[in-house]
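Write out structure tokens for NACHT domain-containing protein.
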Amino acid sequence: MPSQFGPLLRRLRTRAGLTQETLAERSTLGVRTIRGLETGERGDPRVGTVRQLADALDLSDDERVELLAAAGHAVRPAPAAPAPLVDAAHQLAFELGARLTREEEQRQVHDPFPLPVRWRTGPAGLTDSWANVRRARAGETAGPLDLDGSLDQIVGVHRRIPSGRLVILGSAGSGKTILTTRFVLGQLAGRGEDDPVPVVFSLGSWNPATTDLRDWLTEQLLRDHPGLAARGPAGSTLAAALVESGRVLPVLDGFDEIAAGLHRAALAALNATTLPLLLTSRPDEYRAAVAETDVLTAAACVTLTGLTPTDVADYLPRTTHRDGLWEPVLAAPPDHLATVLTTPLMVGLARTLYSDTPDHDPAELLDTARFPTQESIERHLLANFVPTVYRPGSPDLDTERVQHWLGFLAHHLHRLGTPDLAWWQLGDRMPRWLRMVVAGTSVGLLAGVVAGVVTGLVHTLGVGTAGGTGSGFADGLSAGLRAGPLDALTMALTVGLGHGAVLAFGGRTVFEPSRVRIQRRAARRLGAPFLRRLAVGLAVGSGLGVGLGLARELGATFWIVGRIGTTTMTGLLFGLAFGLVFGLVWGLMASFEVPVDLRSAASPTELLTTNRRTVTVQSVVFGLVLGAGYATAVGVVHGAWHGLVNGLSFGLVLGIAVALGVASVSAWGHWLVVGRLWLPLNGRLPWAVPEFLEDAYRRGVLRRAGAVYQFRHARLAEHLAQVFRSRR
């Protein structure tokens, strides 16, 4: 061993103020090993051993390199990552840090201080062999790691695990969410240039039977950070490149929230990777999955412990300015009340109900006749949380209606099997036929009104020139009333059937929000996207042409064709021309589409606004181009005045109809019909849904998780959903 290693190690240990025994405990190495390395009796320390020492001593990057070099391990510089990937990782880290800091402020985590969260090393049956956890070489033995710790030690505990894989088990409300947030912020605070970026992923939306883990991680990154859809190395997206290059450290939250029957497949999929990760779960679901398959390969396990009476006594009195408020409760609580107050969730609810509400007295919890069991107290705290947070400053909100709306949302998430409340998925559990009817009827009514008004104006102009304005207006009104309902029915059937086709061929993922924005100048050359869209347009046009031609053979002539000609060939040619123009316009628009700015992380409202703008521009462009083209064709066929009036008028109708049709099969259009019209009409949600969701976030009922909302607590969501179902 190089002679410099021992003296250097001793100097670094002394500077840190550690004894050999303390360093041995922190690094999980033996005291004899530390002593032997410092005296030179033990030679050739392995890279893993040196890194354990560096972690325990909390060395800087330069000091780590120096210690490795002194041990004879020359540090080869890693291949430089492409600059866009480095920038994307830095930007992602910045966004996550800012977002999670705001979430902690919103949840009052530091007011007055974070509730203690502690854990102990998990049971042997849920931890892989320590040789695997510590990445021991073949034939070597490895003893267990002491992983006991508390909230501010989670980063260090994870770094002490050579495999980088840690499972955190805790009951509902035990502090897993606070712990994962602290872990991410702690990792980001000490993140080095090439360290991976810790990202929280809610496992409840993962289907391991259909989606590979890395693919799902990429999809989630794209959802919450649309800017990562930009082109990365080797032609992939930046999101995919970050995942594949190991620049993302997955923090997988809620293994227990994966759909029933898929836990075994999920654990098998996780074992098929070697990714460092942190996984949280309720104990029972994880234990059952392990019994059916195996432990998470190379993963250590810790179990969260409850709050102590001292923790609660230190915390609750400091959450209120009313002296002595909590003294009766904390002095001698009944056993079942003391048990309730061992979980951070229940302590947080108790704080909201009593410390943050002037006219509530926590002494009522001591009434054993009213609250004879642990479950009765928990139900009381859960049931009164929403009325309490909506009480101050909300005279225009009926608490019962608010609970009904929130209950519907919780029930909706329960049926979807996900904790993620996404605005574009609000109608996903509606029957397909109902979605077709709602979309078709909504768009059909609008198209019918437009067609009626335009037809009336055309007849007013046309007849009014020859027979007088009064006669022209009367005839125009009559024609408009006749044309409107017929065109509404035609448009309703067209959009409804189109909706059904999109749902049939697109499955559950069809109405996904757009990750692009439209800019004024072309951003890229025409290429594969243009050709794909042109091909789709021609396919659509061919189908339309065949349908119109067959309709003419059966004796029916639709007005969009009849204004140009009444032959079968006219229908065929119209359909092909329509499809060609549609494909060309759609293809050309691809060159004006660019990914959302990398610096803008998506929030639910920001993503909704971006999609509204994008879909509006696309719909207007389609409507203008196709409407103008149709107007020109009619004008050529019918001559100057008559052709101009009819061409412009019915071109306007077609343009608006096309714009409405395009919007209806987008995520934003689907949201508009279902979230802003159908569900409020049925009383499931208020009319101002975005404002309601943001208000629920500000009041602490919901939290933001990237582009989606989640209920602040799974227990709260379960309670609201149960109450909603009981009142249906």
